[in-house]
Design a protein that fits this description.
five-stranded antiparallel beta sheet; Heat Shock Protein 90; globular; 4 helices; alpha+beta
């Protein structure tokens, strides 16, 4: 587990997460995606909370899980990510590059969970999962 509370800690957060992911077998091709995703979430934590956060990493059922906990309360719809807006893209980027990106929030605590499969390629949902038409 690593605790961070200052923008100068972001390099250490990225290195910690990627080293742990490498140690549990994350394919080297997936490391840049994880590095970007955890950096975006950790940056949001520093921008939107007063106390920073903690990050943990572990392997679970063929994937690496990076979990960041902070003291913020996430409210859906507060990060619009519209072209031309200032900021707001980080969570969408994390969602795009991870195989799964979950959040659990209650007043005063948010847990961000980034899951990347250990294989070399991002798993995309099957077409039948997205479309059940004729």
């Amino acid at each position: 587990m690593l605790t961070f509370d200052n923008p100068s800690d972001l390099t250490q957060v990225r290195e910690f997460v990627c080293e742990c992911a490498r140690a549990v077998g994350l394919h080297a091709e997936r490391l840049p995606a994880l590095r970007v995703a955890i950096s975006e979430v950790a940056t949001n934590t520093l921008r939107h909370t007063r106390a920073g956060g903690t990050v943990r990493v572990w392997a679970d059922e063929g994937a690496v899980v990076s979990e960041l906990t902070d003291s913020g309360t996430f409210q859906a719809g507060t990060c619009p990510a519209c072209p031309g807006s200032e900021g707001g893209w980080g969570l969408r980027i994390a969602d795009e590059v991870c195989d799964r990106f979950d959040l659990y929030s209650q007043p005063g605590k948010t847990v961000w969970r980034l899951v990347i499969n250990l294989g070399a390629h991002r798993q995309s949902p099957a077409v039948t999962d997205r479309y059940s038409g004729p």
